[in-house]
Every structure is written in C-alpha cells, then in structure tokens.
Amino acid sequence: MTSRITIRHLASLSDADQAQLADVLVSCVDGGASVGFMAPFDQEDAIAFWHTLAPEITAGQRMLLVAEDDRGICGTVQLVLNLPANQPHRADLTKMLVHRRARRRGVGAALLQAAEATARECGRTLLVLDAVTSGDASRLYERHGWRRVGSVPEFALFPDGRTCSTTYYYRDLTDPTPMGAGAARRGSRYARIERERRFLVTTLPDSVDPENYVRLRDRFIPGVFLRLRRIERPDGTELLTKLGQKTLDPHAPSDPRRRQMTTCYFDPGSAGVLSSLDGPSSAKRRHTIRVSGRQWVIDVWEEPVSAAGLILAEVECDSDAELEAVEIPAWVKREVTGESQYSGWTLAGGGRLSTTD
Questions:
Q1: The predicted structure's pLDDT at residue 266
Q2: Helix pair angle (43-58, 15-30), 10° resolution
Q3: At what angle do helices 136-143 and 107-121 cross, to 10 degrees?
Q4: What is the pLDDT of residue 190?
C-alpha cells in the first residue's frame, strides 16, 4: 500500500535531516537530473552541499520544505527570500527534488503548492524559477499555472556531460487561477491543523526593526466565524487577501493550541464584495523574528483604539512535541494561549468566541 505523503517546513538542519536530504539529492543526480552537479556524485558531496545551506535556513533567508513518507524525506523544495533590497515582493523557487522511489505519487505537486502557500505567508507575490526545457519539472510547473518566459539554449550540463537548455518561469501569486486554464483550483482552498502558541509581550525586542513589517487588516464576519484578512505594505499597497475560518480540531477539541484552519486566497481587488460585509475590524503591524532557528511573528495592534499598543507574539509548529518544546524568549511576558480576551475576534470588538481563536 502506498504510504501517505506529508509536507513540513524545516527551520534548521540536523545531521539526520542532512543525511536524508543527501539521499534525495544523490538519487536525483544519479537519475540524470541537471540540478547543479556532475557525475560522479556521492553521499559525502551531497551532505557538503546541504551543510553549506544550513546557516541561511536557520536565519530564515531560505525556506526549506520537505516531503516525507513512511521511510523519511522523499522530496524537497526551497524558497530563497534573501534577495536584493529592491525585490522585497518576490522569491526564487529552487531545488525541486523528488527521490526516484517517490515518483508519480504527487510529491512534486504537493511541494509546489506548499511552497506557494509559504511564499504568500511571507508576503511574497511573485515567484521565479528555471527548469530543464521540456523536462518533467517544466510540465509540472505549466500544469500549475506557471508562465513560461523563454528558454536559453545550452545553458547547463546534465551529470553525464550532455548540454541542456533551460526555461524560465514565473508565478504571479495574485493570479486567481493558479492551476491554469481549464484546471480545477485545487490549490486555492485547503484545510489543515494549525498548532500555535500565543504570548503577551511588553515591548518589541531590540532585534526587531520597527520599520520592517506588513500590515494586517482583519474583518470578522459574525455568525459564520470567518475572518477576511488583507495583507498590505506599510504604504497601503495590497499584497494579498484571504478568507479564513478557524474551528476546533475534531481530534483534540479541548486543546486551545490546535485549530482546524481553512483558507481561500484572493487576488488584489477581487474581495471587494466580502469587504463590504458588516463586522468588527482590526489593524496591526506584523513583524517576523527568528528565535533558536524558529520563526515567530510579533503583532503590534493599531486598531481598534481599545487594543492600540497591545503586542502579541505567536509561534507555530508542525507537531505537538515541537510546540511543547519551543524555547520561550526572554522578551515574552507570559503565555496567553487559550485566553479568549486575547483572540482576534474579542480584541476587534466582536465579543468572546469560544470555538475559534
């Protein structure tokens, strides 16, 4: 029976992670993939490659996603966020690798959709990549709505020394049809279990640049527990709008740290009808910071007036064990996970909400 594929983000690389990622890379190079390496290529070479990326991954400059089956890591993809200062809106998607044992199981598609969702969460609206012309990867990208820019002949070599051309693609994450013409929009709506802890903070940590943030404008729609969120730059330019609903995790309804999250994404300007609905609203500045290799978000509330100046920090993890073991930074005052007075709904003025947070 085919094992289930799961996707998760690695905020740091352990020796075991590097060994498994090396297996994936060696499998791809041995299979003839043009991914930057020449034959002969062995496990030691692959581990050295992953070792060089570890500092960027830990610093949050490069987001690393992995696909896992019952044998461990079987695929991976990266988002390079550390780009020039005049390109804060985009990221490079690179090193889409799937172990030969996991081919034809939808691993590449799952990694691609997860990478696009991660880019949105990081406030990126444009992704760029290159792939071997007419290869399996290029067909994957085209099926999922990536647009071909053009090809460069004899751009690189296959591991055996043959030349290959490359084709450049881009993906506009504000495009409302991510799957391409005629295809189902399977990537625009998804449900997942969110594992999160929330903390009260007195002042912004010294390491946070107060001018480096995105603004979140939320509207809470009564009766259906929906939240419409507009993410914008400090100057008010819209980056993304999404409609979300958090409900109790049916498998752990009494755990305030676990919620089932469903999200729909909209291109800028297309959520106007929803924006006109009545409901309490709020605005806050969102900063990001790395603590012990893990990303935290820190929200400074601006509206409503009753919440202005409040600072809350949140950290999200892929498993209950990771969430429990999170290292709490010294600048945290106390944990408020599960305290309804600190939920977005309550702070916006919608009153206490016991089934969502």
A1: 72
A2: 130
A3: 50
A4: 47
Lookup: tokens for 284: 């806050």
Return the pLDDT at 252: 81
Structure tokens at 224: 């259906």
CA dihedral 187, 120, 49, 76 (to 10 degrees): -20
| CATH fold for the domain made of 193-348 | Hypothetical Protein Pfu-838710-001 (2.40.320)
The CATH superfamily assigned to 6-172 is Gcn5-related N-acetyltransferase (GNAT) (3.40.630.30)
Domain positions in the chain are 6-172, 193-348
Q: Give pTM, 2 decimals.
A: 0.56
**259-to-101, 228, 230, 357 alpha-carbon distances in Å:** 33, 17, 21, 8
Q: What is the pLDDT of residue 310?
A: 96
pLDDT for residue 144: 84
Residues of the chain with pLDDT under 70: 1-3, 175-191, 267-271, 350-357
Sheet holding 147-157, edge to edge: 6-10, 62-69, 72-80, 90-98, 126-132, 163-172, 147-157
